[in-house]
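Dissemination and training. As part of the outreach component of the grant, students in the summer workshop were shown how a complex can be specified as a set of sequence lines and then modelled as a single object. The example used during the hands-on session is reproduced here so that future cohorts can follow it. Participants entered these lines:
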Amino acid sequence: MQIDQKMCDITVVHISGDITLNQGGDVLLKDKIQSLLQQGAKKIVLDLGGVAYVDSAGLGQLVQIHATTKNQGGALRLANTTKKLKDLLVVTKLVTVFDSYESEKEAVASFN
Amino acid sequence: MDARLQVTDSSGRRLVTLDKPVFLIGRRTAADLQLVNADVSREHAEITNDGMRYLLRDRGSRYGTFVNGEQITERPLEHGDRIRLGRTDAIELVFMTDGSSSTHISGLRDIGSDADLRQMAAILNGLRALGSGRVLEEVLTLVLDSALDVTKAERGFIMLARPDGELEFKTARGRGRITLPGTSFTTSAKIPREVFQTGESRIVGDLMEGNLAGMHDGTIAIGIRHVLCVPLNVNPMATEQNIKPHIIGVLYLDGRERTTILSQQTRSSLEAFATQAALAIESARLYAESAEKARIERDLLVAAQIQQALLPTGSFETSFVDLAASSVPCRTVGGDFFDYLDLGARGFGFGLGDVAGKGAPAALLAAAVQSNFIAQAPVSGDPADTLTRVNNALLRRAIEARFATMFHGVVDVDGNLSYCNGGQEPPLVLARNDGISWLEEGGPVLGLLPGATYAFDRVKLEPGDLVVICSDGVTEARNAAGEEFGRERLIEAMAGCHGTKPDSALERLFGAVRKFSQGTPQGDDITGLVLRYRGRPN
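and obtained this result:
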C-alpha cells in the first residue's frame, strides 16, 4: 500500500494498493491518520481511487479512523470509492457512516 | 621429516601433506594445492624439500607471498610459520612439521591440544550434521568443557548476544567439568564487547600490564590475569541457507596462571573450534525455536478441536424446522461461527457470524460473539434487540477496529421468520419454483459503532422453503482466474433445491464452491447454514 498526501487547510490523502491485514495496510493507514491529526489536520479527504481491495480488517480500520478524526473535532471524507468498496459498505451497512464523494474535487468542495 | 600445511579457507580447515619434492600452490587446477581467490596467482608459490629443509619460493606472483607478515621471495620454513598469499586474509596457511622439537621460546605450543580441538570441532560438526535435537545448554557445556580441557584455562564462559545486542552469560564452567554457580561473573566487560564488535580474537597475557589494570580491577582482585576471548562466528556453508553469517557471541576463557591459553597456536585452533561451536549453538537455537513453533502448532490444533466443539452439531431438527450447517476454516482455526437454540413460544432461533480477520485472534473473538449471542437471544424481545445487545456487549470490550458481522433469525411454528442482518452477506430465501429473495434488513456490523440502531423484518415461510446463510468466504471464494463465486452462482447452485433436505442442499452449495475454485487456496473461512421450514406439525 502507498500513501501520498497534499497538505493545506484540507488534507488530501491518496491511497493506492490494498488495505488488508496481510499487507499491514490497515495499521499503516491508522498511523498515517493519527500523525496527521497530531499535526493539527482537521479536514481530511481520503482518495481511495487507487485502492483495489479492502478486507474486513481494512474496513474496520476505515471506520476506526473515521471515528478517531471525529472525536478530535475533525472530519474525514471519502473520495473515488471503487464499486467493490461501495458494495462492501452497502452489505455491511456502513455506507451511512461515511460521507463519500465521486471525486476528490467534490470531496474538497464539500468542506467549503 | 614429514611436513604439512594447515589450510584454512572458505571451505573450512584441513591438513595437506607436503608429499612432493616440489609442491605447487596456485589457482590453476593442476596445482598441488589449489586455492580459489582473486589474490592468488595461477602459479603463486612452491615449497621444495631437499630432504633437509622446506623452502618456500614465490613464483613471481602478482600480489606477493608473505611469511609471518613479511614479504619474501624465498625463505626456509619453520614449524608454525604463517604463510599469506597476496593481500587476502581469507586463506591462512600454517606450516607444520611432525615430531619437530619445538624451537620456540614460549614453549607453549601444544600440537596435542590442537589435535584435540580439531577432533572436538569434528564432533561438533557431526552433531550439527545430524541436525541434532540436543538442547542448547548441553551444546554450550560441551563446547566449554572441551575448550577448558585443551587450554588448561580455569574458567570458561559463553556469552551470547541478546536481541538488543548486549552480551549475556549463558553458561559458565570451571575446570573439572563443573558449572559455576550464579548468573553473573567477574570478568572483563571490555574484552568480550570488543571481540563481539570487531570479530577479532583477543589474548591478554597479563591484565596487570600496560593500561589494562585500571579497567579490570574486579577481575584482578580475584586473581585472574590471563584471558583468551574468541568470537562465536556463524559462517555457514552454502547449503545451509536458513542461517546467515553473523557473530552470535563470544567464548571467553581465563585463568590465574600462564598456560597454553596464551599461545598463538591455541588461539587459532580455538578460533576454528569456535566457528564449529557457533554453528552447533545456532543449530541448537534454531532447533529450540522450531520446537517452540511445533508446540504452538499443537496448541492451535487443540484450539481447532475446541473451536469445533464450541459449535453445535451440524444437523438438527425440531417438529417444524430442520437444519444443516458446516464451517471450514482456511487456517487451523477460523473466525466464523453458527449456533441455534430453542426460544420457546417465540420459536427456533439461529445465527451465523463472521469475525473480521483470520486465525487465532479471530477465533477468540468469534467465541466471544457466539457466547454473547447465545446469552442474549433468550432475553431479547426480537432479533434486532438481540443484535443491539450483542453490539453493546462487544463495544464494552472494545477491540480496536475488530468487528463481526452476524445474521440472526427466529422462525415460529407457523413459518413466520423474523430476522435482523448485522452487516452480513444477505441470506437467501428459496421459495417454491426457485423464487429468490434476500434478507437485508438490519443494521451495521457489530462492535464498531456505539449507539448503532438495528431493525428487524418479517417474512412468511411456506413449507419446504429454505433459508441459506453463508459467510463471505462462500460468495468471495475464488477460482484460479481470480473470479469470485458471487451471488449468481449461489442462486444457480440452489436451483431446484426447494423442499430438499438441508444437508443435501448444503452439500450441493459446498460442492459448487469446490468445483468452482478447483483447489485454489481460499483466503477466508467458508461457513454455511441451510434451514428448512417443514410446516406446522399436526
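The mean pLDDT of chain B is 83. Students were then asked to discuss how this feature might be tested experimentally.
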